[in-house]
Amino acid sequence: MMDMESLIRAAKEAREKAYSPYSNFKVGAAVMTPSGKIYSGCNVENVSYGLTNCAERTAIYKAVSEGEHSFIALAVVADTEGPVAPCGACRQVIAEFGIEQIILGNIKGHTKILSLEEILPYAFTKNDLA
User: Fold this and answer.
1) Annotated catalytic residue: which of 13, 16, 45, 56?
2) Predicted TM-score (pTM) above 0.90
């Protein structure tokens, strides 16, 4: 069973490590594997904005770099009025790994749980290359 609270807590903790000197918009994310292992990440900005990496991709890439390729959930958290949503690039990376449960949150504790289909309908996938 997925421990949603631990996943959200890991995303909040990762948010505190964000490197966001240009936007001052700190974001944290965490992904969970089927075994319950959690990998977290934060956004890392660059003066050349196109080289900035979002928290969601940082968390996923960190997990992949450790040999993980299967995930059951992702949580993303920011200091926003309502739950924060992943950008389009992150949605495509989430789709690449078939993460079916996406938890949008904020630091106030508001959350919204969506499916992959809900955040990226008609996703471009490996099936499109067949």
Assistant:
1) 56
2) yes
